[in-house]
Automatic annotation (TrEMBL):
Pfam family, one: COX15-CtaA
Membrane spanning residue stretches: 85-103, 115-140, 146-166, 187-207, 227-249, 261-278, 284-306
Species the sequence originates in: Angustibacter luteus
UniProt-recorded name of the protein: Heme A synthase
Taxonomic path: Bacteria, Bacillati, Actinomycetota, Actinomycetes, Kineosporiales
Presence of keyword Electron transport: no
Keyword Transmembrane recorded: yes
Membrane protein topology class: Multi-pass membrane protein
Keywords associated with the record: Cell membrane, Disulfide bond, Heme biosynthesis, Iron, Membrane, Metal-binding, Oxidoreductase, Transmembrane, Transmembrane helix
Length: 317
């Protein structure tokens, strides 16, 4: 075959990005995993009453960044310090994610917007460190604890987007579903945010304050807040059902239908855990699983929204 008729590899055709290096996706997935993991470990700090195991910040105790033997906090100091240490691990992985995306953007001449998105997890680590310090200094004020959790949910969302986006071409997007379903998905996103926010109000009114000796609470009725949270969840399920039926009745493709069913499955599991923890007096294990489920729900909803559109390659735009 002559040089004139030899096919040009996709990696060198103008406008078509070369395949990402094999280690890019694993690093981005690792970033997502540690973002979820720090949510669970942070929850365990609260659930074990270790929120003030290190009573100062950024030091653990005045004069020492690490726990000291004579601290009165006992085992709680090690639990809280362990969670602080894990924040460094999350920061290292977030930095690695930023570096691999930056290298790929330079190598493949991909949009610089990807670098801005990849910077969000690292910036989030700094924001979370500051919020964590404020939480300690305000003696676990439930508002700062709630903000701490909600920022983590935003970082899980951004990290999920990053994993999905890096595997896409760089051309313009177009929906693969009817406009009514696009708007329904946006309603689902808003409802997911509302469910998470109401969940923090339930938590901030319940028994697990993070410090059994001096609990700080919102002062709201836990049962009423739980019911309001439950009502929002039922509405969320209704919107998911509308999406599933709409995707089934239209030629939307297999990927959106798959992601919708996954979202429903995660939501059902999260709902079961929620009712179990409510009916059994909020045991630590159930609450921890519920926090993990909240993170997985954000992942599922983010993927569902992203599956409702495709991005063309630049060569075909």
């Amino acid at each position: 075959m002559s040089a004139a008729t030899t096919p040009t590899p996709a990696a060198t055709r103008p406008g078509v990005p070369a395949p990402a290096r094999r280690w890019v996706q694993p690093v981005l997935v690792a970033n997502l995993v540690v973002q979820i993991g720090i949510v669970v470990t942070g929850g365990l700090v609260r659930l074990t009453g270790s929120g003030l195991g290190c009573p100062t910040w950024p030091e653990c105790v005045p004069g020492s960044y690490t726990p000291v033997v004579h601290q009165p906090q006992g085992v709680h100091k090690y639990i809280e310090f362990g969670n602080r240490t894990l924040t460094s691990v999350v920061g290292i992985v977030a930095l690695a994610a930023l570096v691999v995306v930056l290298l790929e953007v330079r190598r493949l001449h991909r949009p610089r917007r990807l670098v801005a998105v990849a910077a969000l997890p690292l910036v989030g680590v700094v924001v979370q460190a500051v919020l964590g310090g404020i939480t300690v200094l305000t003696h676990l004020n439930p508002a700062t604890v709630a903000a701490h959790f909600l920022v983590s949910m935003g970082l899980v969302c951004a990290s999920t987007y990053l994993v999905w986006r890096v595997g896409e071409p760089d051309g313009p997007t177009r929906p693969v579903v009817r406009s009514e379903l696009v708007w329904t998905s946006r309603v689902l996103a808003l409802l997911t945010g509302a469910v998470l926010l109401l969940g923090t109000l339930v938590t901030g009114s319940g028994p697990h304050s993070g410090d059994a000796d001096a609990p700080a609470r919102f002062g709201l009725d836990p049962r009423s807040m739980s019911w309001l949270h439950s009502d929002a969840v039922l509405l969320w399920f209704g919107v998911v059902a509308v999406l599933i039926v709409g995707l089934r009745l239209t030629s939307s493709g297999a990927v959106p239908r798959r992601e919708a069913w996954i979202t429903l499955a995660v939501g059902l599991a999260q709902g079961v855990i929620g009712y179990v923890q409510y009916l059994t007096g909020l045991p630590v294990v159930a609450v921890a699983l519920h926090m993990l489920g909240a993170s997985l729900l954000v992942v599922a909803v983010t993927r569902l929204l992203l599956s409702l559109r495709v991005r063309a390659s630049l060569s075909s735009s």
